[in-house]
Amino acid sequence: MIRRQGLRAVIAACCASAVFVAPALAGSEGPGAPGAGDAYFPGYGNGGYDVSHYDLQLRYQPADDHLQGTATIVATATQDLTAFNLDFALTAKSVRVNGVPAQFSQKGLELTVTPPSTLPQGEVATFVVEYEGTPSTADVDGFNPWVRTSDGALAIGQPEISSWWFPGNDHPRDKATYDVAVTVPDGTEAISNGVNTRNSSLAGWTTWNWRNTEPTATYLAFMTIGQYEISSKTGAFGQPFVTAYSDKLGPLAGPAKASIERTPEVVDFLTQLFGEYPFSAQGGVVPSEGLNFALENQTRPTYSHKFFQSASNVSVVVHENAHQWFGDSVSVDTWRDIWINEGFASYSEWLWSEAHGTGTAQELFDHYYNSHPADDPFWQVLPGDPGAENVFHDAVYDRGAMTLHALRSVVGDEVMLDITRTWAAEHRFSTGTIEKFIDLAEQKSGKQLDEVFNTWLFTKGKPAVNPAAGVAASAAREHVPTPPAVAEIDRAHEHLHDH
């Protein structure tokens, strides 16, 4: 067995390219860093300040994809700040800091602002940016996640989307609350996170106001505009349950609703596993075009219509709502930690299947273990350090789920629940790392778990049958029966990775 120092050495070797690079030290005077220090995506986020709230006043015209907006950002300087960056792809027209005009320049996704005077460390400041543009034409280095549709637009993406509709600090470490007001032509709907606080109409335009009161990562803030059937009901725990289905779903509307309308039931099930639901609203959105994946937008996941082409699909609803705990409430500290998000979301599908008699988690483990022969490139991607190019690789999802089942088989159900619930509670509205998760698992189990995590997260190749690493002998059977849940889970995963 590899001892603790052995596993840390493995992690260090695997992740040498993903070392966190800290921004300027707090208390030093100077410009904030133009990145948050994430080695997978060095340009994401910024240093020197911490955002607490975004107020977005937007006006969007579907006919020509023109967006204009005013973003008011409430932030605290974390150093004596002489200049700072905002991540932004559209054209800034003016910037004010604490009400005073500020100098600014733009290059790529960096909007660099020089305030009239240094912002002292600890000072709460407001940044007001007026802007406009055509998001669908705002390509940056050949990339553009904004989707223009026949009746509106989708501002939905991972790991980045916010820069194409509002300026901000685009990294999961800097979470904030949101007020989003979207003005669109009468007869057009606009949906975002949280709750719809009011709507108002004037001179042929309707303004939709949405409020999101829990800390949210920038990429999990979303906006959908178009022709939608919006419904607000009471969901689990008496919370608002808001859904939006495209008017153009046609025959897919039935299976989409048969899936998404079970969200309160799914959330209640997941609460029994993970502890208290972390947010104050629930829901789901299904557009009819432009989206090839599902994304766990906070309080309101969005699902491609493709998930419902052959039948209803509750597995994808389980997956995206599990992310409300793992990914949304507890987010990645750097994008190398993505395995925790996707492993838990995928394993939750197995647990749902186990609870509903369509295949135990062990049967599903055996199936996916045997679906990939030893020479399959699948086993060459390390979930614990997949690299920026493989952040959404199948191995991060499916081998990630196998990792959690292996851990469960070694520590037992009671300890596994304790690990899971403690992780969700202790890191609520914050971030977590792989190393912290491993430490917690060892603390709760009283076991050294090097062999489990080293085998599944940091070693290339198909793991051999080894109970100490969580691989039961049943996984090596020559003919493994296919659990009924596999068809639905596979349909869910067919599009989950297509970011």
Description:
By secondary structure, this protein is an alpha+beta fold. It folds into three domains: 34-226, Sandwich (Immunoglobulin-like); 246-324, Zincin-like (2-Layer Sandwich); 332-496, Neutral Protease, domain 2 (Orthogonal Bundle). It has eleven helices and 21 strands. The strands form five sheets. An eight-stranded mixed beta sheet has the order 6-5-9-3-2-12-15-14, with no helix packed on it. Helix 8 (413-426) crosses helix 9 (434-445). The longest helix has 18 residues, at 338-355. Mean pLDDT is 92; it is low at 1-27. Residues 52-220 form the Aminopeptidase N-like N-terminal domain. This is Aminopeptidase N. One of its GO terms (biological process) is proteolysis. Its cofactor is Zn(2+). Residues 1-26 form the signal peptide.
Mean pLDDT: 92
**How helix-rich are the residues, as a percent range?**
25-40%
At the fourth CATH level, what is the homologous superfamily of the largest domain? tricorn interacting facor f3 domain
How far apart the termini lie comes to 38 Å
Structural class: alpha+beta
How large, in whole angstroms, is the Cα Rg? 23 Å
The number of helical segments is 11
Say how many strands there are: 21
CATH topology of the largest domain: Immunoglobulin-like
What share of the residues does DSSP label as strand, in percent?
Answer: 25-35%
Q: What's the quaternary structure here?
A: single chain
